[in-house]
Write a structure and sequence with these properties.
The structure is a single chain. A hairpin with a 2-residue loop joins strand 6 and strand 7. The radius of gyration is 18 Å and the shape is globular. It is 19% helix and 27% strand.
């Protein structure tokens, strides 16, 4: 089996082309700091993919698969990370366990792909107005999927350390929403 995989990898490079690009008026820093709510913006779909948008306006959310074009070559070799964005919720970095990158949503990874879900505000021509973006202006979009119940998992498990982090984030959110 290994020989088949190696043979295929040598003979067939994976070629992916963007179907569109993210546009937002927010700076990279503002986008990075917008978690957990995200920012507003739009996705401009290339004209040759316009027919692929038919019916998207009837869905409340869209799943966006994007290429994180600003991740450096050095950061594509990162295999262990901490959930650093949780430090914005008042969690100390020392409290965050070091985990494998494939258990996280860190942008630093061998193939810097992003999967994000955004609220669809409007679809007009080749423009999709969205809220809840966590992608930088100019980010290449590789694919879109309407969010449907088939993507919702109700019976899942997470490790106890992750549950404790979620509880801390929930307390932080509660404190923020009760602040004037």
């Amino acid at each position: 089996m290994r020989h088949v995989v190696e043979s295929w990898m040598q003979s067939k490079p994976i070629m992916i082309r963007p179907i569109g690009y993210v546009h937002t008026s927010y700076s990279d820093i503002e986008v990075s700091q917008s978690w957990p709510r995200g920012v507003s913006g739009y996705i401009e779909i290339l004209p040759e993919y316009l027919d692929g948008l038919r019916g998207l306006e009837d869905f409340s959310h869209v799943i966006i698969l994007a290429w994180l074009h600003k991740v450096t070559e050095e950061n594509r070799h990162v295999l262990k990370v901490r959930y650093r964005r949780l430090t914005r919720a008042g969690i100390n970095l020392e409290e965050l366990p070091e985990v494998g990158v494939f258990t996280s949503d860190s942008p630093h990874r061998p193939n810097p792909l992003a999967v994000t879900i955004a609220r669809v505000r409007e679809v007009k021509g080749n423009i999709i107005q969205v809220d809840g973006l966590d992608l930088y202006d100019g980010t290449p979009v590789l694919d879109l999927r309407a969010y449907t119940p088939s993507y919702s998992i109700k019976d899942f498990t997470i490790p106890p350390w992750y549950q404790r982090l979620l509880e801390k984030v929930d307390r932080w959110r509660g404190q923020r929403s009760s602040s004037p």
